[in-house]
Request: fold
Amino acid sequence: MNKTTLVIMAAGLGSRYGGIKQLEPVGPGGEIIMDYSIYDAIEAGFNKVVFIIRKDLEQDFKEIIGNRIAKSIEVEYVFQELDNLPAGYKKPEDRTKPWGTGQAVMSCIGVVQEPFAVINADDYYGKEAFVKVHDYLAAIKPESDHDFCMAGFVLGNTLSENGAVTRGVCKVDEKGLLADIVETREIKRQGNIAVASDGKGGKIKIDLNSAVSMNMWGFTPGLLKELEDGFISFLDEHGNELKSEYLLPEEVGSLIKKGKATVRVLTSNDKWFGVTYKEDKQIVVESFRALVDRGIYPVKLF
Reply:
């Protein structure tokens, strides 16, 4: 059985939320969302946690979560920085926006050398997905270096009541493999359907039962080299732009279309929740309290 690592993307600026939302307490014992994800990951069998953060957040992370978690599981840190670019490339002088989730995961090169899961810091995924992704990664054979997986959530279970969200809307083939993924923005519930931006000023309709990615993936180390190569192509085309992002779902989709990777979709019916907007926080606090009251989690996790 393979050793497995949980990689947590926590370098986002929290622009819509208006603060460092990853460090907001939401549990009855002052826990943050990451506490619950790490608790579920340890329970599922993961052996190590790697935090992707900004260098300026390192001390806060260690004080608020890292030092505590390190008593229960191996912990490492990697840093997503604007100037962490391939030789010969420079960031535009006025760029302040991070380069995106693809570059974030690239930060793990040299640190992660085993099958690994990737999640967002500010999303609650539920226990089912962690078990399914861990078990898939633990069984991957060394020769299957581009045999990936993804937790597929039901769109209707992932929407915020307080504003639009971005989701990777998936097309799954008859074999249960991901055929395509489209990063879709400004998704809102509207009656018994969802509507989203078509990117051209109009709207499109989406079935609430559609499979979506919540950026919970299972990868082999082979992905890291692919991301490194893809980032160079991205910079050649978009490197002078101030807000373009190298997105993990889009790069995975590109690998699928090129026949360079397969992604098994592991369905989870758990309800997602997270702090996208300030107004979401109270809903998340109440949701964790309900899970504790039902005995799903102890009052104090670590």
In short: The domain at 5-293 is CATH 3.90.550.10 (Spore Coat Polysaccharide Biosynthesis Protein SpsA; Chain A). The chain has one domain: 5-293.
